[in-house]
Task: structure prediction
Amino acid sequence: MSLLGDGAVHYSVSGLWTAAQHNIPVVFVVARNSEYRALKEFSRFMHDPDAPGMELPAMDIPGIAASYGVQSEQVKTLSELTSAIRDGLSSNRPSLIEVSERRLADSWVVRSFSQARTP
Result:
């Protein structure tokens, strides 16, 4: 399992292609917050809170994954996320799950991961 923010997908999009080409059974869980959050925090630390280019509006992450041949879906509830993680872990192929509700993505990803791993 790989937990990523949508900004990190930009840096590691080749991982989706590699997983598809080599049929690597990894589940990519993407917390969608429509920004480069780590870079925003770093720019604040560097006293440049208004650094440009930190927003990622309208990025179709499931579409990008599907174009590489990775099964993908969007989820909006904790139960959908938990189910999608379980399905992905048992599928023996790469998959991507986008948690598309920004205000809930952070807490859902962490809670769902721990619930999905419980036998």
Summary: Helices lie at 6-12, 14-21, 37-45, 61-67, 78-90, 102-116. The beta strands are 2-5, 27-31, 71-75, 95-99. The domain at 2-116 is CATH 3.40.50.970 (Rossmann fold).
